[in-house]
Amino acid sequence: MDSPQSRRDFLAALGNGFGSLALAGLSMPTSRAGRDEADKLIQEQNVRLPRARAKRVVQLFMSGAASSVDTFDWKPQLVARDGQKFDPGGKVELFQSDPGAVMASPWKFRPRGQCGKHVSDLVPCLAEHVDKIAFVHSMVAKSNVHGPATFQQATGFVRPGFPSMGAWVSYGLGRLTDELPVFVVLPDARGFAPNGPANWGAAFLPAAHQGTVIRPAAASPIHDLFPPKEAAALATPANERDTLALLDRLNREHAAARPGDSRLEARIASYELAAKLQLSAPQVLELAGESAATRALYGLDDPRTADFGRNCLVARRLLERGTRFIQLWSGADNGFPRRNWDSHEELAKDHADMAASMDRPAAALLTDLEQRGLLADTIVMWVTEFGRMPCSQGAKGRDHNPFGFTVWLAGGGIKGGTSYGATDEWGWHAVEKPTSNYDVHATVLHLLGIDHTQLTFRSDGIDRRLTDVHGEVLHDLVT
Predict the structure, then answer these.
(1) 102 pairs with which residues across the strands?
(2) What is the pLDDT of residues 385-433, one digit of tens each?
(3) Is residue 22 a part of any domain in this protein?
(4) Coil, helix or strand for 198?
């Protein structure tokens, strides 16, 4: 068997790294002969892969830190001890303040679905889907600061300079279609979350794998996709042909002078994709053909849900047409009045506003994907950078809590109606099966048919991966 280095070279020479070879049959529309050849190469190189259950991923990112104890992590003790001193028996580390009194959730929790999972009245629409969802209640973050913790969920690291999960999936699996980007980002209509485009960047991976931002509600949903009208009016077939010929010559000269630099290649690929997007993007973004029932399902008829609902509906349209990874944001930067889930001052108002915009559309996405047969091979992830404290901040808010919070997954081989791990009686610290983003990322890659320890890229002399040197597949969540 070849040495590890020569094996990496072999895989890289055949395509975009390990995943492009190993999952050729899944990732690209190839001939039967091409798939047979890929299978043969995999066998010859002794590459062992998990069985792929999923082809696509949607990451619903609740920016600002959604409170677990007000959504999915039921803690009766917060009701029993409401207003009492918060005294968990150890030092309480907070982001902004001293710990206040125990604060009960403003919303009641009720058992839902056949599994009987208790979910808050704050998210009544998602509560109807508990039998599809696996809840991870024992998440732990490395930072209680929004920027680093957002990076950790998006890229696996608390520092900038690392590829996003979507970029890794793009690198590992490649395209399902040539007509649309592999990785699409749908930001909150109110603006970018902390870290901005670095949350979906490619970092040291080839630049072509970064996310493509689409703003469905904007006048120009994809920046610079179409030329300005005045420029288009001046274009003629002859001068466009001459311009393209000159660009081709300059590009070849530029590439020859910079071997190993992926930026020009990515830019060329971007222009090629843009030409196709001029035809495909309007078809995806035009929602007039959707039925009145579908538009109502996503809440396009309600000002509170219209923006996030439009993004969720566009996400479904992208997924069914071949986009592989979508990062969909609920919440923008830390402006006032609050435009995200960062409810330091008045949780009952701010979380109510954010949940009202997110709950119905997110539930609609699950319903719609299932009705169309897409949920079976699409993973939906609901994540946030950390949770919020069980005690009050001031009189009505909650401070940051990185020590125990909840994320959930559904579809694509996920075992619904299950809960994994637990926080203490307060919802403060993870005490049963503490779990990191590395474990969740490893599990998602596993369901996509990728061994997270083998999806690597050499950067600065280190074989980097999404899960760093950590991560265990959460087999309890997998069907």
Answers:
(1) 391
(2) 999 999 999 999 999 999 999 999 999 999 999 999 999 999 999 999 9
(3) no
(4) helix
